[in-house]
From TrEMBL:
GO MF terms held by the record: serine-type peptidase activity
The protein, known as: Uncharacterized protein
Organism: Roseivirga ehrenbergii (strain DSM 102268 / JCM 13514 / KCTC 12282 / NCIMB 14502 / KMM 6017)
InterPro entries: ClpP/crotonase-like_dom_sf
Domain of life (superkingdom): Bacteria
First and last residue of the signal peptide: 1-21
UniProt keyword list: Signal
GO biological processes: proteolysis
Length: 415
């Protein structure tokens, strides 16, 4: 207990020393407040007593703002106001800096970057990281505290600093814009079990991003960030879009065919859509079809709806697979397929960003230029109950065995 209290004290001290008072947050909050009130999601949800609650929250947050505060503290408060409305597509974020991905791996750029204020003033903890690693290795595998692989080039340590708050710190990094001890994420528990609000810095650009109602399950913190103590898990599709044969109908056995659709991007998936629709019309002759929507972060109805129509005409028994990283139009497709009489939904709850959307992609810059606001301009009325919550599967699949194999077993057992 003494070591834990000492650790918390040291963390708190290092946060205070790292805080950079560089943001006049009241104009930023006023900006977000004004932008929110223009959205359909706000007008639809904030009525009657909710209007009073919203105004009270706005005034409360405004009253908590000093003349200047750290950028990350301001960002939290902006998102606290934004989070009042259930609209996961609308977001406040920090724009990316003007360097490129190639710069990140250029030694000349890195040498210059490491002398910059952006690098030297990045929040950092003054802890013994060797001791921290040892403490985190003893944490239960099922809990959120522990050591994580963030992709293949970084390790993070996530530890609790309060009853409902945690921090993610860089333990190791092969990405030279980071160094051990720098803070990667601030994590806050929500009222929903296993759900967290997370402010984090983009791995490649270190710009502030807000992850709302993030699900922690199977040791997975983000889509590419999983506990290193976990065995191989099968809830994530571990291939890149370049490697995947996306939108290709394949045969698993005499009775079952399969397709993985990793995106419904309007600009890149037209050819894939047309090829798949043709395949379904001419080659789908099995009684069962597995539609794998894991990792599908969405796109356009113009891509997904013709595919749904072709599947419906086929009259195959459909088994839909989703994970938490099935979002937006991937979720809409899940819901539309579930409306068919012959569909079974398996896997994991979806992301919960389907009631509202963005058609025009407009963004607005805050008074300081420090933040960007991206509002929504679309509404899917029949899916509003699933906003933030996601669509839960009829059959939940465990992460310790291949999901396609599990689905095949369920199909076989149901014959």
């Amino acid at each position: 207990m003494k070591n834990l209290l000492t650790l918390i004290f040291l963390i708190t001290l290092s946060f205070n020393l790292s805080a950079q008072a560089n943001c006049d947050c009241k104009p930023e909050l006023d900006f977000v407040y004004a932008q929110m009130k223009k959205m359909n999601s706000f007008k639809h949800q904030v009525k009657g007593n909710k209007k009073t609650e919203f105004e009270n929250l706005y005034q409360q947050l405004r009253g908590e703002m000093a003349n200047e505060m750290s950028k990350v503290d301001c960002f939290w408060k902006l998102n606290q106001l934004e989070h009042f409305v259930n609209d996961k597509h609308a977001e406040v974020y920090e724009p990316r800096p003007d360097y490129t991905m190639d710069d990140i791996f250029d030694s000349t750029f890195i040498k210059s970057y490491r002398t910059s204020d952006a690098f030297k003033n990045h929040p950092k903890v003054g802890l013994d990281l060797t001791q921290l690693k040892a403490q985190l290795k003893s944490k239960p595998a099922s809990g959120i505290e522990g050591i994580y692989n963030a992709g293949s080039r970084m390790k993070l340590g996530v530890y609790r600093i309060d009853t409902d708050s945690l921090v993610g710190v860089v333990l190791e990094s092969q990405i030279s814009i980071w160094e051990p001890g720098q803070i990667y994420a601030y994590i806050k528990e929500t009222d929903s079990p296993s759900r967290f609000n997370i402010v984090f810095y983009g791995q490649l650009y270190k710009n502030l991003v807000f992850a709302e109602e993030q699900l922690f399950e199977n040791g997975q913190l983000f889509s590419t960030t999983r506990k290193e103590t976990k065995d191989e898990a099968y809830d994530i599709v571990n291939v890149t879009s370049d490697e995947a044969e996306s939108f290709k109908l394949t045969r698993l056995n005499d009775d079952v065919q399969y397709v993985w659709m990793n995106s419904f991007n309007r600009s890149t998936m037209r050819k894939n859509r047309d090829q798949l629709v043709t395949q379904i019309e001419n080659e789908l002759n099995s009684p069962y079809l597995i539609v794998d929507l894991r990792n599908n972060v969405g796109g356009s109805d113009k891509i997904s709806k013709p595919i749904i129509k072709a599947i419906k005409k086929s009259k195959a028994q459909v088994y839909v697979l989703t994970n938490f990283y099935t979002g937006s139009n991937g979720e809409l497709t899940t819901g539309r397929l579930r409306k068919l009489k012959n569909t079974v939904h398996l896997g994991q709850t979806t992301y919960g960003a389907l009631g509202y959307g963005t058609n025009y992609g407009r963004t607005y810059t805050s008074p300081s230029g420090m933040f960007t606001y991206a509002p929504t301009d679309m509404r899917q009325a029949s899916f509003l109950p699933y906003e933030n919550e996601g669509i839960g599967p009829e059959i939940k699949l465990g992460a310790n065995k291949d999901w396609v194999e599990q689905t095949l077993a369920i199909i076989e057992g149901g014959k």
